[in-house]
Write a structure and sequence with these properties.
The structure is a single chain. The protein has 175 residues and is mostly helical. Helix content is 54%, strand content 0%. Helix 1 packs antiparallel against helix 4, helix 3 runs parallel beside helix 4 and helix 3 packs antiparallel against helix 5. It is globular, with a radius of gyration of 20 Å. The N and C termini lie far apart (62 Å).
């Protein structure tokens, strides 16, 4: 017979609270990148303006197209997660920019800034203890905030890897 008493209800609740907080911290780190993946700031900063719209032979996209695709998709995921009246863009064409090159010299920086702002919005959403990460989103089809955060992090990691590869091919990656 074990000499240990069963955990009280409060002790189990405290442990789940600690686990909940740990999960939220892991999600925030995953969204930021780093660890096993490139961070978004590393991948996007310092991209030469004259190469943002260059498509190397064999590449389906330019860095600009990938950045804008990431920005649009992240915005859509965030707005879907927090706004029941949000209408997603038409798929797939609504998730890609109309041109291979930025429309202006300032467009890259504006897109990076907007991406960062929406990423902070997603991190704020998953950080909020009032957000039930496991509850189905009422206006969705079974999605949860946890799923949406993981989709955003996975999508970002995939395309940031593509941007890094493009930058290496274009010799625009710091050694």
């Amino acid at each position: 017979m074990s000499s240990q008493a069963p955990a009280s209800k409060n002790a189990r609740h405290a442990a789940s609270g600690a686990n909940d907080q740990a999960l939220r911290e892991h999600l925030k780190k995953l969204l930021d990148g780093g660890g096993a993946h490139l961070s978004w700031k590393e991948a996007l900063s310092g991209m030469p303006a004259d190469l943002q719209g260059v498509k190397p032979q064999g590449s389906p996209h330019t860095a600009w197209q990938l950045l804008e695709h990431m920005r649009i998709a992240l915005w859509d995921i965030l707005e879907f997660s927090r706004n029941p009246k949000h209408v997603s863009p038409q798929f797939p064409e609504g998730y890609w920019p109309p041109a291979e090159t930025p429309p202006s010299a300032e467009a890259w920086d504006k897109s990076v800034k907007t991406f960062g702002r929406d990423l902070e919005g997603m991190k704020k959403l998953v950080s909020d203890p009032k957000t039930d990460l496991f509850e189905r989103i009422a206006h969705g089809k079974g999605q949860t905030i946890l799923r949406e955060a993981l989709v955003a992090a996975d999508h970002n990691a995939y395309h940031l890897g593509q941007i890094m590869l493009l930058r290496k091919i274009l010799r625009a990656w710091p050694e």
